Amino acid sequence: MKKKPIIRYVTIAAFLMLPLGAVYLYKKQSEKTQNEDSYEVGDENLDEIVDGIHVRTGLVAADGLQEVITNCTTCHSSKLIVQNRMGKEQWNATIRWMQETQGLWDLGDNQKIIVDYLTTNYPVFKKGRRAALRDIEWYTLDSD
Ligand code: HEC
């Protein structure tokens, strides 16, 4: 019977703490969202160029970079571009293929700028594959 008032005080205290807890959680949450925002929108580092490479996309910083970023990195990663070495004809064919089957828009004057950028900065590898093997001593597999 004597303990009852204490329990009452504790209960009241607990209820008084509730809003504090809520405010704390709310603040924490909004700080978190603010931090996330600062990585995405309005970050000047998005167009940072280090050692001639556009950091965000990994593309070579050269004439036509902006056109390539605008037109070629919305549907897929720029890695897909960097990994493909093609000549002018092949690039035009690839672009036509994407236009006919993947919904790539008409690039207009930018097509020449983009293809020039690609063939200049990502030229076809001199050796696409290893040289053919020569002077091999073949041996027969016994099958018994
Ligand atoms: C409208 C969407 C879209 C746009 C914009 C786009 N592509 Fe693609 N592209 C695709 C799709 C879809 C594929 C197939 C992806 C896959 O196979 O995973 C593809 C594939 C590729 C490939 C690989 C082709 C192959 O034979 O494997 C290359 C290279 C490429 N795109 C380059 C570009 C370039 C350069 C541009 C800018 C002119 C561009 N893409 C813009 C949709 C697009």
TrEMBL record:
<keyword id="KW-0812">Transmembrane</keyword>
<dbReference type="GO" id="GO:0020037">
    <property type="term" value="F:heme binding"/>
</dbReference>
<dbReference type="InterPro" id="IPR036909">
    <property type="entry name" value="Cyt_c-like_dom_sf"/>
</dbReference>
<keyword id="KW-0472">Membrane</keyword>
<protein>
    <submittedName>
        <fullName>Monoheme cytochrome C</fullName>
    </submittedName>
</protein>
<feature type="transmembrane region" description="Helical">
    <location>
        <begin position="6"/>
        <end position="26"/>
    </location>
</feature>
<keyword id="KW-1133">Transmembrane helix</keyword>
<dbReference type="GO" id="GO:0009055">
    <property type="term" value="F:electron transfer activity"/>
</dbReference>
